[in-house]
Amino acid sequence: MNSFEFQNPTRILFGAGMADQLGEQVKSGGWKTVLLVYGGGSIKKMGLYDRVISQLQQVGAKIVELPGVEPNPRVTTVRKGIDLCREEGVDLILAVGGGSVLDAAKAVAVGVPYEGDVWDFLIRKAQIQGALPLGTVLTLSATGSEMNGNSVITNWEENLKKAFGSIHAFPKFSILDPTLTYSVPADQTVNGIVDMMSHVFEQYFSSTPDTPLQERLCESILQTVIENGEIALMEPTNYAARANIMLCGTYALNGGMISVGMQNDWATHMIEHEVSAIYDIAHAAGLAILFPNWMKYVYRERIDRFVQFAVRVWQVDPNGKSDEEIALAGIEATRAYFSRIGAPTRLADMGIGEEQLNRMATETVRFGTVGSFKPLNEQDVKAILQMSL
Ligand SMILES: NC(=O)c1ccc[n+]([C@@H]2O[C@H](COP(=O)([O-])OP(=O)(O)OC[C@H]3O[C@@H](n4cnc5c(N)ncnc54)[C@H](O)[C@@H]3O)[C@@H](O)[C@H]2O)c1
């Protein structure tokens, strides 16, 4: 295990009815002017918008709104939010929605005190030095954005989707009420399941030795998601299943808590960002397609980890099988699960062909090789994309 530092400053309020604690949170923080950030209107359909507004009004907060945050949020929307904060003297940003809304709100938060253009943070031209405080009410279990400092933003003028991570961007508080996810449709529930499993994969497939606790944490999250994901898809209002998935999503990408002292990979995410920067597909759809192919491309680097994955997570019976056969059975079980819950398995399923493969591969390695389990160069990335066609 490597030495590490770990800090996670986000306060979590988890459980049925916790959305009604919002007013109290705002009041106790002493915040007076709130930028309410939300998406295309699902929070209005589910009655959450009214619940949020009435609580903010009750505590006397002035409300400024940034509606219409896109799935795969855009830097143009973030810039609008930054302008609003400056014009209105906002002192709390409140994101109500899924990962896209939370990520956009984080980018607004870090952009307000910065004199240059917020996109500078995404292309690593500037370092984040501070942020406005951020609170969140999560409506979709997937990204872990509710308890980490990451944000993924798309720039359509340049066809780029880039991420930043900063201690300044962790929410001050996040309200996780599983009942708010009852209305999440089946396809988005599937995306969430794939996303959180992918986050664990990026941390679990590591070459750092002697990390048994971290490995078991990863394996238990994967098993819990696998079991409860299928239940939530059959019974969308099953509280236990929705709550378990929600907690898994938060743990899966929690500022690195489950993989402290381990080198992470993240190559597959880097590749996916370039796919969805060009094709605007759901992030998780890209991950479901790419991950089994990444696994097939790299498993020989450390076959023991893939054998452990197959046996512990997918209960592959090792008797009479070679390590190679066990590892491949685990990868196949992953692909079969994604397929069973309705995730896409090929880029062709999303209407994506060979045309932009070179560009995606080049852009993925813009800052050098990606990943650490097996560092991937442009040719490797292209090979994985080709396997995914
Ligand atoms: N910050 C991170 O750590 C991190 C990690 C992974 C991915 N991401 C990014 O997050 C984004 C995806 O976020 P996401 O997967 O949470 O999805 P999302 O926020 O894009 O939402 C997907 C859709 O679900 C709808 N929705 C949300 N809650 C709903 C509800 N309760 N009922 C009905 N519909 C609802 C939204 O309106 C939207 O149309 C991508 O841009 C991805 O790159 C961020």
TrEMBL record:
Coiled-coil regions, chain positions: none
Classification lineage: Bacteria, Bacillati, Bacillota, Bacilli, Bacillales
Organism: Paenibacillus gyeongsangnamensis
Pfam families: ADH_Fe_C, Fe-ADH
SUPFAM superfamilies cross-referenced by the UniProt entry: Dehydroquinate synthase-like (SSF56796)
Keyword Lipoprotein: no
Domain Fe-containing alcohol dehydrogenase-like C-terminal stretches: 189-387
Name used for this protein in its record: Iron-containing alcohol dehydrogenase
Keywords tagged on the record: Oxidoreductase
Keyword Oxidoreductase listed: yes
Every Alcohol dehydrogenase iron-type/glycerol dehydrogenase GldA domain range: 9-178
Family matches, as PANTHER family: ALCOHOL DEHYDROGENASE YQHD (PTHR43633)
InterPro entries xrefs: ADH_Fe/GldA (IPR001670), ADH_Fe_C (IPR056798), ADH_Fe_CS (IPR018211), BDH-like (IPR044731)
